């Protein structure tokens, strides 16, 4: 029956999560596991084409193949297949937090920020305790800022602070809200300095995201030397790799350094061509 193959495909997704959260081996080692799951879904489809679970699991497998592939240009077809298949799933009325969450990531990647925000909201409404829910809350926050929906961004930030406690996430969103404004008051810059100090000992690679946003806030507040100091500390040789490049470009833009901003964006698009549309549509770079 189709059930056994769907269950095996779900096991492939569960094994992928163990690899991702285990952090003891390269993420690309999950790809053979995901492809084995796709083969199970293909076999499930031979038994029935009416089980709605097939589209959902297939879409999620496509999504994770795209997300974890080292060569994002080759994986773009998986992203597009994931979007199509998961849209079919949610259009049936299925309240699937993981489908909506995956779609919010895809829409962010393609620069469809209105749909990204809507999908993140639907994911949280479907299950606010789902796996990786903190990442969904952060996407809601970021897409709301892209959409100039400051009230929703603030609500998302408050939700992050309430559910995550004293963590990097809460500090980051407080700093990011300040950074997305075109000016920063002396009191706001004190908030930024305090956030940097409070999170410095966490040793998380995501700290560089906070540093970039802090640098933007300092640049907006006229403290250019402090902004340059933070820019110089952001390197692609860190754990975030080329993911830090758009944040560094944002900081360079705030410092009115068009040469470095353009170089960072070009390097990012060269490394991740599938993300070109999303990053270039960000309002951080519209000026």
Please explain how this structure is put together.
The protein is an all-alpha fold and 287 residues long. It is 74% helix and 0% strand. It is built from 15 helices and no strands. It has helices spanning 2-22, 31-47, 52-68, 72-91, 97-110, 113-126, 133-146, 150-164, 168-180, 186-199, 207-220, 224-232, 245-254, 258-271, 276-281. It is elongated, with a radius of gyration of 20 Å. The model has no long low-confidence stretch (mean pLDDT 89).
Quickly list its features:
single chain, 287 residues, mainly alpha, elongated
In short:
The chain is an all-alpha fold. The chain is built from 15 helices and no strands. Helix 5 (97-110) runs parallel beside helix 7 (133-146).
Distance between the termini: 56 Å
State the order of secondary-structure elements, H for helix, E for strand: HHHHHHHHHHHHHHH
Radius of gyration: 20 Å
Task: Give start-end ranges of low-pLDDT stretches.
Answer: none
Which percent range describes the beta-strand content? under 5%
Q: Pairing-aware structural class of the strands and helices?
A: mainly alpha
Mean pLDDT: 89
Largest sheet: none
Assign an overall shape. elongated
- The helicity comes to over 70%
Count of alpha/pi helices: 15
Kindly state the number of beta strands.
0
């Amino acid at each position: 029956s189709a059930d056994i193959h769907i269950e095996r495909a779900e096991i492939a997704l569960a094994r992928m999560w163990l690899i991702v959260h285990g952090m003891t081996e390269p993420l690309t080692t999950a790809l053979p596991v995901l492809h084995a799951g796709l083969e199970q879904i293909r076999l499930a489809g031979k038994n029935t084409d009416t089980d709605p679970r097939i589209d959902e699991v297939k879409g999620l497998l496509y999504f994770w193949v795209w997300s974890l592939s080292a060569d994002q240009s080759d994986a773009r077809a998986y992203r597009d297949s994931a979007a199509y298949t998961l849209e079919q799933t949610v259009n049936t009325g299925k309240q699937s937090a993981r489908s909506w969450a995956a779609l919010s990531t895809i829409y962010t990647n393609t620069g469809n920020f209105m749909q990204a925000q809507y999908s993140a909201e639907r994911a949280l409404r479907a299950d606010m305790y789902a796996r990786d829910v903190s990442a969904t809350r952060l996407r809601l926050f970021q897409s709301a800022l892209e959409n100039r929906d400051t009230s929703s961004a603030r609500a998302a930030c408050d939700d992050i602070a309430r559910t995550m406690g004293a963590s990097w996430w809460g500090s980051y969103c407080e700093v990011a809200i300040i950074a997305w404004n075109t000016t920063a008051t002396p009191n706001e810059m004190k908030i930024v300095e305090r956030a940097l100090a409070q999170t410095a000992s966490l040793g998380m690679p995501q700290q560089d995201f906070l540093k970039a946003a802090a640098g933007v806030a300092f640049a907006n507040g006229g403290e250019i030397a402090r902004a340059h100091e933070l820019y110089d500390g952001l390197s692609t040789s860190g754990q975030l790799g080329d993911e830090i490049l758009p944040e560094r470009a944002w900081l360079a833009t705030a410092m009115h350094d068009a040469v470095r901003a353009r170089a960072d964006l070009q390097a990012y698009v060269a490394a991740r061509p599938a993300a070109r549309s999303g990053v270039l549509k960000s309002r951080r770079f519209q000026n």
